[in-house]
Amino acid sequence: MIEFKNVSKSFGSTMALNDVSLVFPRGKIIGLFGPNGAGKSTSIKLIMGLNRPDRGEISVDGEDPQNKKKNLAYLPEIDHLYSWMNIAQAADFTRTFYDDWDEGKYRDLINFLNLQEDMKIAKISKGQRAKAKLLLTVCRRAPYLLMDEPLSGIDILTREEIINTLIRDYREGEQTIIISTHEIAEVESLVDEVIFLDQGKVKLSGNAEDLRIERNMSLVELMKEAFRNAN
Amino acid sequence: MQTSSLKKFFKLYSKEMRELRPEILIVLIATLVLDLFFYFKFRQYPGMIIVPSMMILGLVVLLPFISSFKLLGREWNSNTIYLLLSLPVKGGSILGSKLLALLTQYFIGTVTVTAGGIFLTLLMYPEPGLAETLRQAQAAGIDTRISTMLSSGGLFYLMSLAGMAYLIAISFFSQLLGKMVTRFSGVVTAGSFLATFWLMGKLMTPIWHQLLTNFSQLHMNQCYFSVAAFNKLIGINTLVILAGTLIVYIAAVLLYNHKIEL
């Protein structure tokens, strides 16, 4: 379980998260939704230990995120792989650091995603880079998978492949997936729990199905309503 | 099966060596080209033997220092810092692998230049020949035994290696300080480099001064050059530089582990 206790984080005069308390339950797919600048990426980076809270506390299974990095698989929005590497070299680099690397899954997924090991990161398209990043992240049997805007700037066919990969390899009850995105419609069918963030605060959170039934709305409509009321 | 820390460190080190490959190749090619050029163009002027080696030596000393800024700074410029910071390794391994790769670059460069220099010397050494010159120096009371030259040369080389590590550690420390601010990162890096260099100099100068005083009292009354005393001085100097390197390196690792954010 990942827990935020009264977490605040600011960058200069911009308050990214403002006294946020949250629980990300284990074994679920959790959607972290909100418009640009809502604090989604900051939340993911705080869990990953790439940022530190100004106030409050974050714990991953009761421990400081800095000590749990081996249990966290992270897919950032930006291209973070070494551009001189090819996919095989990037996989070799990654597998050295993680004992949960699943070689069978890697071999299987590289075909499923239509990638080749000798593809050089610098020379492949944006969609292929997104798939390569996804490949290296989901090939690990990490208890927590953190995805920051995995569909951003990706064409519709690649989006479908990414979502299918997630559905295909998700281990329900064992693995926790946190997907931060403002493109809710694409992942609506995936998520079990939702957290709507706006201007560093939680606007709405709960079980996705319960919210849909209770309000008789899709998650996209729910978000629109939540933010319309907020403004 | 759990991957050992050593294997992780070696993987990081291999990555850094791959990043330094172009600079290493530049030194190798420049040495070869310059040595050949001097051999074929200035064969009749044996006094020029030293020139290509000295020219490349400048490059060899300068390149690891410049590369230290490239190796760390590029992680931010190419966003690969996201990958590095998410790895389950601490700053000691990240910065240690970069430091070791830069020292390897320095080692390869100096060995190449030395080998080129020795080769040119053997080919171009003027009359009466190298062996005869060594015999004459021995007759004049200079210790020209191979073991002596190797021990003094080796110690001197170790001191230069420690000096390079010292400069790289200050470079890492100042770059990390620069990365902690969102604006004027380059100015902060340059300012903190100079400030750290000055501060460490202030810290180390009294120690050097004390050592030199002791050394003078012990050896200046002797009318001949003592190799053992020279070696001792170099050895102590190396230790002082290494201590300075360790202080700055630990400060850089602590910054990386506790203050660096994205």
TrEMBL record, chain A:
Pfam families: ABC_tran. PROSITE patterns: ABC_TRANSPORTER_1, ABC_TRANSPORTER_2. GO terms for molecular function: ATP binding; ATP hydrolysis activity. Residues 2-224 form the ABC transporter domain. Gene3D superfamilies: P-loop containing nucleotide triphosphate hydrolases. Transmembrane segments: none annotated. Keywords: ATP-binding, Nucleotide-binding, Transport. This is ABC transporter-like. It comes from Syntrophomonas zehnderi OL-4.
TrEMBL record, chain B:
The chain crosses the membrane at residues 20-40, 46-66, 99-125, 154-173, 180-200, 234-256. It comes from the Bacteria. Keywords: Membrane, Transmembrane, Transmembrane helix. This is Uncharacterized. It comes from Syntrophomonas zehnderi OL-4.
